[in-house]
Design brief:
Blueprint lengths: L1 E3 L2 E3 L2 E8 L4 E5 L2 E3 L2 E10 L2 E10 L7 E4 L3 E9 L11 E3 L4 E3 L4 E4 L61
Parallel strand pairs: 1-4, 2-5, 3-6, 4-7, 5-7, 6-8, 7-9, 9-10
Antiparallel strand pairs: 11-12
């Protein structure tokens, strides 16, 4: 299973994403936020999960990840609300992603405030699709220092500070 460039929000379940035995799931450039999971956001039951260049953020202490062995989990280039439930890499940060207006379901990242802007490179994963606004990924924001590269995390590539392309002129 592969999911890229999706926004999952306000879902209610015991687990939001469940990976079954021997299954392989790739989650790249996704925004998973404000879900009501009574157990965990992602559960890996004896499968393999690759979670890269994504935002997983709730305003509570719901664990991001739970596993049943033997399982494999690869995590890199993430902003999350916690990192105790999985083996976080040096490219993972516990932080508020600074969405434009999460109270009104606008999960675009704020180009001026979000730590997700210019966070990673394609060394972690090359995007295969455009973002949620059909904009190309990898815009190097001149107002943001690149943390580990020019690619924004999550489903949105922020064009808000770009005066040429922000209105869709591309």
């Amino acid at each position: 299973f592969k999911m890229e460039g999706s926004v999952l929000y306000e879902n209610s379940a015991s687990v939001i994403l469940y990976n079954s035995e021997d299954a392989i799931a790739y989650y790249h450039y996704n925004t998973i936020a404000d879900n009501n999971a009574s157990n965990t956001i992602i559960r890996n039951f004896k499968g393999t999960i690759e979670l890269l260049s994504s935002i997983i953020h709730n305003n509570d202490d719901t664990p991001v990840y739970a596993t049943v062995s033997p399982s494999l989990g690869f995590f890199n280039c993430l902003i999350t609300h916690e990192d105790d439930s999985f083996s976080a890499s040096v490219f993972t940060q516990v932080a508020d992603p600074e969405f434009i207006d999460r109270n009104n379901d606008d999960y675009h990242i704020d180009a001026m405030l979000s730590p997700a802007v210019d966070f990673c490179s394609t060394k972690e994963v090359m995007p295969e699709t455009t973002d949620i606004d059909n904009e190309f990924r990898g815009l190097d924001d001149p107002n943001t220092d690149n943390l580990f590269g020019t690619y924004d995390l999550g489903a949105d590539e922020a064009y808000g500070s770009d005066i040429i392309f922000r209105n869709g002129f591309n």
